[in-house]
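Entry type: protein chain
Record version: 2
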Amino acid sequence: MTLGVERIPLARRDWFVRALQLGVILFFIGAWEGLGRAGVLDPFYYSRPSLFLPRIAEWFAPGSTAGDIWLDIRVTLTETVLGFVIGTLLGLIVGYAFARNRLLGLAFDPLLSMFNAIPRLVLAPVFILAFGIDLASKVALGVTLVFFIVFFATFAAVRDVDQTLVDNVRILGARRRDVTFEVLLPAAFSAIVASLRTSAGFAFAGAVVAEYIGSNAGLGRRIATAEAFFDSTGVFGGIVLIALLALLLDSLLQLAEGRSSRWKPRRER
C-alpha cells in the first residue's frame, strides 16, 4: 500500500513533503497549547508554546534582567565550534592512521572499544572536575563526542577502499602522499562528510550539557538557572532557542555538504 507520493512530480513532491512536515509541527504545537489551556498538561511543569517566543524576546530586549543572551549564545557557539573542529581533526587523523596501519588498529582496538562503550555525556562531571567550569571542560566533552563519530566513519571508509585500486596507482608511480590525497581520501569523502552533520549536533549537545552541569555562562547555564527557579517557560524557551541554533548549524553544514559533493566528482575526473 502506498500513499501515491511517487506519482507527484519531483518539484511538487518537495513542496508537498515540506508542507507535510510543517503540518506535523503545527499540529504538535497546537495540541500542546490546547492541552495546556484545557488543564490537561499542568502549565507549572509544561508551560505553553505561546509563551516561549515572548520569553525569548524578553531575553533579547535591551536591559534584560535575565543576563546577556548574546554572551550566552557566543559562549555556547564557541564551545561547539572548538569541540567540533578539534574532534573532527583528531578523528580524521587517528581514523586514517589506524585504517592504514593494521597492527596499530589491532593494538588500540580494545581501548577504543572500551571508551566508545562509555556514554560520553557522563564524562561531563569528570571534565569539569579536571578542567574547571570554564571553556576547556566544555570543549573537551565536545571533542570526545565528535571524535568517535568521525574516527569510525573515517576508519571504515578508508579501510574499505579497494586495495587493487591502491596497488594500481602505486604501480603507475604514485607516492604515498598521492595515494592519500588522490585515492583514499576522495574515496572516503562521502562517508566522512556525512558523519560531520551528526557530529556537529553532538558537539552542540556536549557544550550545552556541560554548561548545564556547571558554567558561568552559556545557554545550558540559562536553562539550569530557569530550572532552579521552577520557571518551566524559561526552560522550554532555552530549549527552543538551542533547537533553532542547532537547526541553523545543520543547515549550514547541509549547504556545505551539497557544495562539497559537487566538488568531489570534478576531483575524481
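Comment: The first helix runs from residue 10 to 37.
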